[in-house]
Amino acid sequence: MASGGPEIEQLIQLMARLPGFGPRSARRAVLQLIKKKEQLMIPLSAALDRAVVAVRTCEVCGNIDTASPCTICADPRRDSGILIVVEDVADLWALERAGVGQVKYHVLGGVLSPLDGVGPDDLTVDALVARAHEFREIVLAVNATVEGQTTAHYITDRLTGSGLKVTRLAHGVPVGGELDYLDEGTLSQALKARTEI
Amino acid sequence: MASGGPEIEQLIQLMARLPGFGPRSARRAVLQLIKKKEQLMIPLSAALDRAVVAVRTCEVCGNIDTASPCTICADPRRDSGILIVVEDVADLWALERAGVGQVKYHVLGGVLSPLDGVGPDDLTVDALVARAHEFREIVLAVNATVEGQTTAHYITDRLTGSGLKVTRLAHGVPVGGELDYLDEGTLSQALKARTEI
């Protein structure tokens, strides 16, 4: 296996631990890095060094940013009064890419999962309940899985009596999706929630 | 798009240029890196820094290593007299993983391709011809593509008269492969080159 010295082998092993990479594709990526040393390897090395120093978790919402409070929490234009609750930072970024508007976020850090030993104390539910009163609507944008829905129910319970409007994302046909490939549950929900044209 | 500060965005853009990654998977990988800062991001950053300093191309064979001549060229046990000619460092590493024995290598750095403007001077053919006399057999392990075979013919021509034995890899059914999925060319070659059991 030692075709290229211990430094290269170690780099391959670390790259192979990234999601989407295995030992073979990590080796290809490292070869590409080495071949494009000036254009890719040195800039990537520098970018990683900078990120290691700069990256932190926002103490308000749980977003990952180079500032805390993060750019979103510190943005004074985000005053729509809507707080979107997501499981993970990746979901927050996906909603931002979708351009959902001048909203704020709360990252739970996971979902309730008794089987995996994840209880309410492992998530940022207390922090959510503590800051919820600053908003007029809480949108529960958790995944449409069993764990996600259980978590949504739990949060709704905790917010009962606060007088807040609690909503969830709509179920339906994905834009560009073909009916033929959709599961029955989604189709049935999409029919129930049909809208007039 | 700026969900996480310029340092994070730049890291994502650089990761997206690795083979096997696109913008979406690079974002996922960067999130994973940030979440596993101690176990993954800091070690990867350090490994990249070390590799940037240490990695070089072997001046003898074209392999990528942290020494030049590389570990393979400097290995005194590799005295079988067999030189395997490959297109790319990735091919060299693949052959090493296959454990082909105590051989040496020569990396061409590509294949002849008039359409892409790649001529003999862009490859290390001259260096190959210069060192070929140190060996008793030259194995042309170029890819079984049109360009690969053209390159193999060109090299064979250049070595004509040197008295060297020039060979190529066998064509046939891949180990574990199903006949049904193989192309006709491979099947016909495999039948022609059949061996007695």
Automatic annotation (TrEMBL), chains A, B:
One of its GO terms (biological process) is DNA repair. The keyword Methyltransferase does not apply. Residues 81-174 form the Toprim domain. Keywords: DNA damage, DNA recombination, DNA repair, Metal-binding, Zinc, Zinc-finger. It comes from the Bacteria. CDD domains: TOPRIM_recR. It holds the Pfam family RecR_C. One of its GO terms (molecular function) is DNA binding. The keyword Signal does not apply. Signal peptide: none annotated. InterPro entries: DNA_Rcmb_RecR, Rcmb_RecR, Rcmb_RecR_Znf, TOPRIM_dom, TOPRIM_RecR. SMART domains: TOPRIM. May play a role in DNA repair. It seems to be involved in an RecBC-independent recombinational process of DNA repair. It may act with RecF and RecO. Belongs to the RecR family. This is Recombination protein RecR. The lineage of its organism: Bacteria, Pseudomonadati, Pseudomonadota, Alphaproteobacteria, Hyphomicrobiales.
